[in-house]
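tool=predict chain=A
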Amino acid sequence: MSHPYQYVTLRCVPRVERGEFVNVGVVLHSPTLDFLACRWHLEDGRLLSLDPRLDLAALQASLAVVEDVCAGIDGGGRPSLGSQGKRFGWLSAPRSTILQPGPIHGGQCDDPDAALDHLLTRLVLPKG
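tool=predict ok
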């Protein structure tokens, strides 16, 4: 039986004024399967080609916060949002920082973990 899900692609936008970005992660939420998780992958060379001054450690720290929010970890500057739906809403809300969510998309799956891996491969990982 397929279950609905929503996802956003996470984009690194090193120089907001230029509007250039590299997809670095995906957040997937399936309420009927009680699933909210993030996967990410950084290609340092691609990112630094957009801005050689990009702080990769800060980007990794921002992605770690996304993982924590997915897991429901709050405090230490992380929001206390309660439900997965509220956490996904916060993660998918537009922002003008170096790490930005793309538009919300949807789909259906039997296994949200496998769907998240598939989306990461299709949308983030370099084609080899």
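The first strand starts at residue 3 and ends at 12. Residues 3-123 form one domain.
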